[in-house]
Amino acid sequence: MADTPPLKAPHLGEPYLLTPGPLTTSLATKEAMLRDWGSWDDDFRAMTAEVRTRLLAMLGDGKDDFDCVPMQGSGTFAVEAMLASFLPKDGKALVLANGAYGKRTVQTLEYLGRDHIVLDKGDYLPPRGEEVAQILADDPAITHVIAIHCETSSGILNPVQEISEATYAAGRKLLIDSMSAFGAIELKPSEIRYEALVSSANKCIEGVPGFGFVIARKSELEAAKGRSHSLSLDVHAQWAHMDKTGQWRFTPPTHVVAAFLVALRAHEDEGGVAGRGARYARNRDVMVSGMRALGFETLLKDRWLSPIIVTFFCPADENFVFDRFYSLMKDKGFIIYPGKLTIVDSFRVGCIGQMDEHVMRKVVDAADASLKEMGVTDATPPAIALEERAKLAA
Ligand SMILES: *Cc1c(COP(=O)(O)O)cnc(C)c1O
What we know:
Layout: E1 16-17, H1 27-31, H2 42-57, E2 66-72, H3 75-86, E3 92-97, H4 100-112, E4 115-120, H5 129-138, E5 144-148, E6 150-151, E7 156-157, H6 160-169, E8 173-177, E9 196-200, E10 211-217, H7 218-223, H8 235-245, H9 254-269, H10 272-293, E11 309-313, H11 322-331, E12 334-335, E13 337-338, E14 346-350, H12 357-374, H13 383-389
Parallel strand pairs: 1-12, 3-4, 3-5, 5-8, 8-9
Antiparallel strand pairs: 2-10, 6-7, 9-10, 11-14, 13-14
């Protein structure tokens, strides 16, 4: 692996956020927030237009059938907006759940009163194309399948290609929560068919939190008119208003948009989705191989490891205490993330944000030093963790 030159230090001494958003942003992105913008002014309208055009361009061929609608709020607001706008009131959804974000989608559908069933694969097993095909064959009332692209709670990269194929072979439609993947993992409509996806400012594009965006087929946007239960989350209304006036319907997060634009230009300079994804994959590879050399084990086998975030089992050694490990890592400049598994203790390390393989090597050094300070001589997980992992196909 060829060494790339180190990224410019993105911050002024604060710890790196090894978390799946908010994440470490560049100094230029932060500096873009040092002025005020009038939301109605031509300058800001041009910024909104550029954001939409740049996001759409990431779709590649086929992008002309789609449009991009930014929505105020965190990512969940945009997911809710997408579900309420594209699922007809008399539709029925199949939710493919294997973690917290799939469960949140189910909860959202309950709030919205939309009929649904769930394929619940537990904490981390992937929903497979054959399973989707079988469920759709058994239940002709299902109109839409909802998939999570990268399930950030385990870090698994779900097989959206085979899910899409099964969905459209059965004549149904696919909606994708690509929150933590979009911008780093290709989602080209010419390769994977879907009706709409959703993501947000503070994930792989490396902006600061404050808005999400829905990218949907124009035909679906048109059909969404009058469907939403919510004034502020109505994707069609936001789209129609933005197209007519160039403005957001309600106060936009102006500084966040300004920062996002700088982040988007940097994304292009890095080589777009392919370049961004390659850096994150290097981050993961360097970090995972270093951690494995210390004795740590990943929850997932390599084929399912996303370049977004990685779950590690906590060591079996009784001297290992996660809270202590967390604060020792933080003292060394790295904020890690607790795990979300129900069966065994775990923690997560993010690979996204303004950091590169040089930083990831220091993360491994910090983990090594922290283990020594805790008196942990071996980072091997308990046997039950490895039995659990054996359930996952290679
Ligand atoms: C981050 C994320 C969301 C949105 O979470 P917010 O806290 O509302 O920003 C939704 N889905 C996935 C897969 C995510 O990673």
